[in-house]
Amino acid sequence: MNTGAGAGARSGLIARLNRISTDGRYLIVPMDHGITLGPVKGLVDLESTVDAITDNGADAVLTQRGVASRVHPNKNTKGYIVHLNGSTVIGPDTTDKRPTGSVEGALRAGADVVSFHINIGSDHEPDQLTQLSNLTEEAHRYGIPVLAMNYARGPGIDEHDPESLAHAVRIAEELGADVVKTAYSGEPESFEQVCAATQLPVVIAGGSRGTDRQTIEMVRGAIDAGAAGVSMGRSIFQHDNPGSITRAVSAVIHDGASVDTALDIAGLEIEV
Ligand SMILES: CC(=O)[C@@H](O)[C@H](O)C[C@H](N)C(=O)O
Ligand SMILES: O=CC(=O)COP(=O)(O)O
């Protein structure tokens, strides 16, 4: 018998996805690196960083639940995603992401959406596949969307190989996620293959920070290849002016700007 719960949960999913996006495009700034990397530049004064990026075009910020109270006063009505697993670069194996929370805990922390990171090709893939699948089942019971951070990452794996990335994003869809984030393959031509591998909105990670032009060219290339946006952390929150780089990324994602126009709008050097 259709109790309507499915319809209710579906409408909740859509409403919450709209809180972390604008017209189907996503500018998410993850700052869950406080576990992975520690108190790095941009995450020490977390409040100022959140204020700068949410005041300049970001659709949502993403953290672990423990710092939620430091995010809410500054997130300027934008969306909030709570990350539910983690690892550190000082531990024995960064690919061994361990659960760090629950859907209930994320809701208590004020999350609109939850996220989970799995490393396809790592020694921990089997457990992580099961954990992501269980998470989507549980989250969807409450109408909570899941952002899957599916990397191709493990012994002998090329993290930017388009076929591996295509496999990683399809796994997210097969396991019930609502949005998938993965690494960029490096150029639009090969990333088209990645975006075509799934019906889910695909967003890209930024990886370690490069020049402003490299960052904006990456965003432009991903959008041209069919991506729906970014879940870009270090390139934004470690910038000397997180608000400016966010404005440039937003000009590409939300306004269709070219690389040079986006850099110019944000007052960033159009260095070649
Ligand atoms: C620090 C990294 O290598 C990133 O790719 C992280 O894996 C991504 C994630 N935000 C994390 O911090 O775990
Ligand atoms: O959670 C981390 C990401 O989504 C990507 O972070 P990056 O610093 O852009 O690689």
TrEMBL record:
Any Pfam family matching the protein: DeoC
EC number: 2.2.1.10
Catalytic machinery residues: 32 (proton acceptor), 151 (proton donor), 181 (schiff-base intermediate with dihydroxyacetone-p), 181 (schiff-base intermediate with substrate)
UniProt enzyme class: transferase
InterPro entries attached to this UniProt entry: ADH_synthase (IPR010210), Aldolase_TIM (IPR013785), DeoC/FbaB/LacD_aldolase (IPR002915), DeoC/FbaB_aldolase (IPR050456), FbaB-like (IPR041720)
Keyword Hydrolase among UniProt keywords: no
A molecular function GO annotation: hydro-lyase activity
Catalyzed reactions per annotation: 1-deoxy-D-threo-hexo-2,5-diulose 6-phosphate + L-aspartate 4-semialdehyde = 2,3-dioxopropyl phosphate + 2-amino-2,3,7-trideoxy-D-lyxo-hept-6-ulosonate
BP-aspect Gene Ontology terms: amino acid biosynthetic process; aromatic amino acid family biosynthetic process
Xref: Gene3D superfamilies: Aldolase class I
Binding annotation for 1-deoxy-D-threo-hexo-2,5-diulose 6-phosphate: 32-36, 151-153, 206-207, 233-234
CDD domains associated with the record: DhnA
Record-stated family: Belongs to the DeoC/FbaB aldolase family. ADHS subfamily.
Free-text function comment from the UniProt entry: Catalyzes a transaldol reaction between 6-deoxy-5-ketofructose 1-phosphate (DKFP) and L-aspartate semialdehyde (ASA) with an elimination of hydroxypyruvaldehyde phosphate to yield 2-amino-3,7-dideoxy-D-threo-hept-6-ulosonate (ADH). Plays a key role in an alternative pathway of the biosynthesis of 3-dehydroquinate (DHQ), which is involved in the canonical pathway for the biosynthesis of aromatic amino acids.
Stored PANTHER family: 3-HYDROXY-5-PHOSPHONOOXYPENTANE-2,4-DIONE THIOLASE, FRUCTOSE-BISPHOSPHATE ALDOLASE CLASS 1
Name listed for the protein in its UniProt record: 2-amino-3,7-dideoxy-D-threo-hept-6-ulosonate synthase
Species this chain originates from: Haloquadratum walsbyi (strain DSM 16790 / HBSQ001)
Gene from which the chain derives: fba2
